């Protein structure tokens, strides 16, 4: 037998316009120990804001797709002045990462999909009542997948290059890193543009690159320039 006993945060708000979902949520909350008098229900953002203004709400379950706007706007409104300390769990059918990020960014402390079964939803609510933050496993998997892809897309840091440039080549590479053209480098070092270009070609060969940008990058990686 599972023990679902946990300190309950009362009163709480359920912002959900679907009566079927409201009933489902109530049964789960009832299993956790809530009574009808502990729960405020709202089907609109305006009424939910009014409830929060008149009552010391300690916990919120919020849908995102509501008749008078987005639950994200409600969360943003409630958290705007920084005085709200009540944990906010989003219970939504939306599973796109941009919506999830927005909800979490404006103040939600948990995000669960409506497709989650009752046992998992009960566990998620219990976790938040105990001070935790929770993300639906399917969402977490998508976030991890995107994170792993971003790591793959990051080019591996090349090994440090060990090359020997002449003093003149070092001077020219430094000038190149400062954004000077071959003509400007020639004037700076009192040599011809043709000579500068010849030195740059030698620098490319030694650094195994084929452009000024790559030469600057390789020079910094090897410690030749800062």
Automatic annotation (TrEMBL):
Membrane-spanning intervals of the chain: none
Keywords for the protein's UniProt record, in alphabetical order: DNA-binding, Phosphoprotein
UniProt keyword Phosphoprotein present: yes
Record-listed 4-aspartylphosphate modification sites: 63
GO terms classed as biological process: phosphorelay signal transduction system; regulation of DNA-templated transcription
Domain HTH luxR-type: 158-223
A GO MF term: DNA binding
Superkingdom to which the source organism belongs: Bacteria
Pfam (any one): Response_reg
All copies of domain Response regulatory, residue ranges: 11-129
InterPro entries assigned to the protein according to its UniProt record, in alphabetical order: CheY-like_superfamily (IPR011006), Sig_transdc_resp-reg_C-effctor (IPR016032), Sig_transdc_resp-reg_receiver (IPR001789), Tscrpt_reg_LuxR_C (IPR000792), WalR-like (IPR039420)
Name of protein: Response regulator transcription factor
Organism: Acinetobacter terrae
